[in-house]
Amino acid sequence: MSSASNKYFDAPAPAPEHPRIRAWGSYRKHPEVDHVELEIRRNREGLTFLPTRMFVTFYRADGDILRGPDEAEWELELDDWLVKEHVRAKDEDNEKLRFSLRLKAAMRPIAARFGDGYFNSVLVYLLREGPFANHPALAETLGSIHEYPAAGGSKGDCEGLVDHELGVAAQELMGLYADRTVAEDILAGAITQYLDDRFHVTDRRLLGLG
Amino acid sequence: MPPSPGEILEQRLRAEAERRGEPVESVRDDLLRHGLDAARAAREARAVASDVVLVTATPTEHKQLEQAAKDIGTGFDKLPGRYGPYYRLGRVGANRVVSIQVSMGAFSPDGAAARCIQARAETQATTIILIGTAFGVAPGRQHIGDVIVSESVFLYDDRRVIDVDGSPLLGRYEAQYPTSRKSASRTWHDRFRRLGEAYVRTGATERVEVGVILSGGARIESAAFRDELLASLPAMEQPVIGGEMEGMGAVSAALASDPADDPGWVIVKGISDFADASSRSKIKETRAEAARASAMAVLRVLQLPPRSE
């Protein structure tokens, strides 16, 4: 017999907003706010990184800061909101870093599903044959990664998921930048940074391993 | 008629000699030497490139891994590396696998901390698996040869020790461990959990247990110390299932990861003793069995196909 009233069944509560998003949303609505800017800092310390931080600043039309920079640890949920609000990073290099973090989050479940070895192989071969193969920075990084082609019945599934996530990132970038050339360069740069992290390309150089 | 590749190279060589202000022959020798060095480095890097690095510490662990590799039909070829040799197992399932042997513990120049960082960079591996032997903590429930897998590692040397109530009296202190527990790769320890379930389903004698593994610099051969250490730990939602000495290596190599990222390491060790005088007295007999169980569990999991197949 069902209970007379049960709040979980009668009127499920909506998900509460992230407190930061609530605050940023209210700042954004301020009549004097003209635009919002994001800066991501991920400082290297030897072979490791300090925690990734994000700084969000709210500007007036004359360029003066109305509020911020508001500092937080980088979280996908916060960044998703900023992307939805069409908030760009402070410059293209910072945008590449931002999207490399987004790609890392997007690719994580694919690597978990297919296993590291299989995912690594599919990812590298897909990029070597993809539209960014001749992008100078990406080509150089791909050249220093040693992978062999993947085989097996899962290859198509894995490729499809990776392609889908790269497509999602491309569409998000087109929402931020009207110029497709700029968006393409940022995505190629983001992929380059993601690969550098995953395959320790800079770490190798720092250790004198070429 | 366009210049041939040989003529183009000769033109570049002369231009480089002019830029340096050196004779052409000396520049030619120099470039050739550098080119050969670079080619050798690239060849070595390709040879050790891998997805997974297996880390052993003692000669017995290394030998048992070699034997297990032979049993499943993979190689165990010794290859040169910049900081020490690699042993290439080749492809195991969908993973390219190499092994390194480190000194026992994490602290020496060729201990687990330094070598895991170097090996991760040199091989471009995305996963580090520490294998070999460990001590168990529950002699009644656990058995020699049981495999323990880290849901997390608890670095018990990373602690704050304070006087109780501010009193400096001998014996009245307590340890606090605010940052000691580090999560292992969920993806990997889940796979070992499934292997353990498969062992139970098929009635196999092998057993796999997943939980918190203690790691520190002490080679523990004292039940009193073991029990005092266990009693000093904070309450955790996962059981403490054993301890070992190289966990800091894996944690060091994963420090570059973002907190939310999968840390890309797991500890998989066989129980060789219970950190007390009685079981340590039989370690020569039990170490090989434990190391073998660990190596076989790891190779079985690596052989699993991608989940969607």
Describe the secondary-structure layout.
The complex is a heterodimer of chains A (210) and B (309).
Chain A: H1 7-10, H2 19-28, E1 35-41, E2 44-45, E3 48-49, E4 53-59, E5 65-73, H3 76-84, H4 92-114, H5 116-128, H6 136-143, H7 155-176, H8 180-199, H9 201-206
Antiparallel strand pairs in A: 1-4, 2-3, 4-5
Helix pairs in contact in A: 4-5, 4-7, 4-8, 5-7, 6-8, 7-8
Chain B: H1 5-20, H2 24-48, E1 52-56, H3 59-71, E2 77-79, E3 86-92, E4 95-101, H4 112-123, E5 127-136, E6 147-155, E7 160-163, E8 173-176, E9 181-183, H5 186-202, E10 208-215, H6 223-232, E11 240-244, H7 247-254, E12 265-273, H8 277-280, H9 283-302
Helix pairs in contact in B: 1-2, 3-9, 4-7
Helix content of chain B: 40-55%
Structural class of chain A: alpha+beta
Strand content of chain A: 5-15%
CA radius of gyration of chain B:
24 Å
User: Which CATH top level class of chain B fits?
Assistant: Alpha Beta
| Sheet with most strands: strand arrangement of chain A | 1-4-5
Distance between the termini of chain A: 70 Å
The count of strands of chain A amounts to: 5
Report the CATH superfamily of chain B: Nucleoside phosphorylase domain
Main beta sheet of chain B: 5 strands, mixed, barrel
Largest interface, with counts of residues having CB < 8 Å to the other chain, equals: A-B, 45 and 37 residues
For the residues shown, what is the average pLDDT of chain B?
Answer: 87
**Biggest sheet descriptor of chain A:** 3 strands, antiparallel
* CATH topology name of chain B: Rossmann fold
CATH-scheme architecture of chain B: 3-Layer(aba) Sandwich
Give the oligomeric state of the chains in this entry, treating copies of one chain as homo and distinct chains as hetero: heterodimer
Q: How much helix, percentage-wise, in residues of chain A?
A: 40-55%
